[in-house]
Amino acid sequence: MAILVDEDTKVVVAGITGSEGTFHSLRNRTYGTDVVAGVTPGKGGQDVEGIPVFDTVEDAVGAAAANTSLIFVPARFAAEAIYEAADAGIGVVVCITEGIPVRDMAQVGAYLRGTETVLVGPNCPGVISPGRANVGIIPGEICAPGRVGLVSRSGTLTYQIVHELTQRGIGQSTCVGMGGDPVHGIGFIGSLERFEADEETDLVVMIGEIGGDDEERAAAFIAERVTKPVVSYIAGFTAPAGKRMGHAGAIITGSSGTATAKAEALEAAGVGVGRTPTEVAELVRAALP
Amino acid sequence: MDLYEHQGKDLFDPAGIPLPERAVATTPDEAAEAAERLGGHVAVKVQVQMGGRGKGGGVALVHSPEEAASEAARMFEQGFGGAVVTRVLVERLVDIAAQFYAAISLDRSEGTYLAMVSNDGGIEIEKVARTKPEAIRRVHVHPVRGLRAYHARRLTGHLPVEAREGASDLVTRAYAVLAETDATLVEINPFVLLTDGTVMALDSKVTVDDNALFRQPGAAALADSFPIDPIERRARDAGLQYVKLDGEVGIIGNGAGLVMSTLDVVKQAGADAANFLDVGGGASAEVMATSLEVILSDPSVRSVLVNIFGGITRCDLVARGILEALERVTPQVPIVVRLDGTNAEEGRRILAEANHPRIVPAATMLEAAERAAELALEGVA
């Protein structure tokens, strides 16, 4: 089953003719993902290594039955690309683009609340269900099919932890990169809800970091609604207050959003919090049935 | 980007938010001239990107141009809270009947804006929230519909009757400033009711979304007015995400989360990181070389830890970048290198063949952090 993406996923890539768009579209296809179309306004009728390019997402849905959108367009056009995908009836929109103004994302979020579309990202590495579909830039070769679900605010830190899991022979059902922006699509709670319902997931790893209160709210949700074991990692215990640590959302504001507060909230909800990526993998191994 | 008070007020002014007469001064003489022009009774306020000015001696109420000059001179000389002071705001004193608080900020949890008005202003809002929560009214603002008249009435309904209309107007205009300038925070603490019945903003705190600077040329042009650490400036000019910290282990990694995690693991190994540096995705040899130069220019660095997990980033290019950097700079400190992921074996082989005396290879992130910490502490001892 997995969540969000699987063997039924048919991807349309917005910005497929850009260098990043082309590179990752082909990489995803090589992984076995069904990349059915690309969209670049004005380039309809062309193709990228056999992937047909359309002028609009609507055309891609009509002609190629796309049901998932992967967005690589520049930040100033990204909100537009999300609206277009939602209006074309796309179910899952994965937005890799970094640097989108937060006001645009607030407006996108308000719009999507009235639709069936689920947004992943922006400023994220995408979603992979190992062995089934890879929609984004997560290196498929470090993942392995299995029964651990993973959701994370960070890209390479996710790779590090997935790598440690795979090295121990622990595979993953789905890895969700929710992204590092303050206003984003699916978060910990939406992912936990889906993993809880997914028959092929036995345990969930959630990787958080400083800034905001996503982890605290996830802790409350876990205490109330999640029966599967959850293991967590929080980055930024040594980050100073008031300094943005790379991600737009990774900032301690006053005394709120600290790693310590997040770890405490999660531990109080019965979540094992590893202090290093290695310890996370060990906790997962110990907790698996 | 956090604006200075006077820059925020330059946004308030055209939006029609009433303000005291004011002038910016960059020397004590200019402060005296401004005070003279404004009638002698003025506030002299340091311009820094932080709060707490009232308590910390950053605001002086004076009654002559001479006093204004001497207070300004003190501020320029002493700086404020560790920050360099290059300018002060000189403002005509007004007759205050009551002080209030207003703010509109991004509410990350709700993914929209939150407007707040307190009938107790001029003090820290966190303190009011703790001790007198009933003083604060809050309204979530839809990011498309914006702040409506009924929101403003609701927000200001607990203020004295004579202040409500002016306050509603002020909050509405403050939201317009936020929306038009892509701000994530517009805070006015305090705004006041004057004895003549006018409602006026005495302070401004505006944060503009860095991601929106491409469409906010006015705000983008202000970026150069803020003091910046020279190493941070160099990193920024090279397009690197760099934050200076207090420790002795220089850190280079790819991806914000992995770098934050690396800082934490170094701390657990008993040392402190000297910086946060994210080379980003797809780091080239050139980027690696510049990063190493930036890190090695920091005199407090006793060892360097390069922690790369190659996804899009190719470890062979990272290895070549390290060697390229070592041709440009002669490091006095050891460089611990951990490469994993895409083309890691090739990268490790390149480094092994170069056999550089300063390079210390490490197999895992944990081992690399422990080694870098150990070497840094040896260097200190």
Give an overview in words.
In chain A, 35% of the residues lie in helices and 23% in strands. Chain A has helices at residues 19-31, 57-64, 75-87, 102-112, 156-167, 188-197, 214-225, 259-268, 277-287; strands at residues 10-14, 34-39, 47-48, 51-54, 68-71, 92-95, 118-120, 126-129, 133-136, 145-152, 172-177, 203-209, 230-235, 272-274. Chain A has a seven-stranded mixed β-sheet, with helices on both faces. Chain A is globular, with a radius of gyration of 18 Å. The model of chain A has no long low-confidence stretch (mean pLDDT 96). Chain B is of the alpha+beta class and 381 residues long. Helices cover 38% and strands 24% of the residues of chain B. Chain B is built from 13 helices and 16 strands. Chain B is elongated, with a radius of gyration of 26 Å. The mean pLDDT of chain B is 94. The chains are: A alpha/beta (289), B alpha+beta (381).
Give the DSSP E fraction of chain A (strand runs of 2 or more residues): 15-25%
- Radius of gyration of chain A, in angstroms, nearest whole number: 18 Å
Structural class of chain A: alpha/beta
Backbone shape of chain A: globular
Structure summarized in a few sentences:
Chain A has 2 domains: 111 residues, 3-Layer(aba) Sandwich (Rossmann fold); 150 residues, 3-Layer(aba) Sandwich (Rossmann fold). Helices cover 35% and strands 23% of the residues of chain A.
